[in-house]
Amino acid sequence: xxxxxxxxxxxxxxxxxxxxxxxxxxxxxxxxxxxxxxxxxxxxxxxxxxxxxxxxxxxxxxxxxxxxxxxxxxxxxxxxxxxxxxxxxxxxxxxxxxxxxxxxxxxxxxxxxxxxxxxxxxxxxxxxxxxxxxxxxxxxxxxxxxxxxxxxxxxxxxxxxxxxxxxxxxxxxxxxxxxxxxxxxxxxxxxxxxxxxxxxxxxxxxxxxxxxxxxxxxxxxxxxxxxxxxxxxxxxxxxxxxxxxxxxxxxxxxxxxxxxxxxxxxxxxxxxxxxxxxxxxxxxxxxxxxxxxxxxxxxxxxxxxxxxxxxxxxxxxxxxxxxxxxxxxxxxxxxxxxxxxxxxxxxxxxxxxxxxxxxxxxxxxxxxxxxxxxxxxxxxxxxxxxxxxxxxxx
Length: 394
Hints:
With 394 residues, the protein is α+β, with helices and mostly antiparallel strands.
């Protein structure tokens, strides 16, 4: 069956439509959703999660709470280390699980009512009874999906909630935490938290939690990218001009007329077009630690044709972020890994279809390759490592 023909499933939002959720809750207030994913079964076991934490390239952390306080250890770990752990009060967290196990991308795909370039990662945690990472505040939006066991979540939704951190803790923990809400989550339940909400999760039983995080661009990153574009375009060579200025009443005075000219000069340089380009490049930059490298061999039309005749999967690199920006006159720009790919109307239509779903079967990709320009573009994407031919379709 053509995978792209399957209806797209979305996460339950407690009876709310995505539009109502985005209007009333997104980045504004928490929301507890009972049975957001009825019958959810974790797609990996605690043992498999621990196996990922043994790998040197995978970011993992082990957090323990003892009578003397908190301890934090970063991976990679050894099997013997897990065997020595106590029966309670510890948590293992593994970042970017969907990038190492691409089949888990389907969990994030249920949140497609939000743009994919907004995604950060799928973090999976396993906690022994009593396990926690302490009361803290996140700077990103997160959906906390309970996968196994029970976890108690407490939050402080008060507008004046204390946010001071404990300088002596090895983690960024809050010095004071006074919950206003207290919930016990079962498998399939989900808690949405916007940035800045103090929260604490404690495992009531051995449990797994799937955290779907959404990142936001920072102002400094946007300004750095805009400055780089100005330099690349040669606009930084322009000089401050003050033709028609008046005589200075004092030789050291920074007069209002000069300051006004400088502010207007900067506003004139930071055009809407330049800022649009800078934003598209920033939000599609690949997360540090993941290199998008093309294959060592050349992928030509024969290679792709052979793949389309085989039982393979053509998938987007799991760490790739993509964003599309249409142009008023037709066509547009595709932002890939922080780069801009200008496209004519034909190419833009192809990328719209290519990026609308997940993995592609050979049949689905063949249906998209309608002309020579599509073939050329697809080969460029494969050669750059943005899309991959996976011989193992299991």
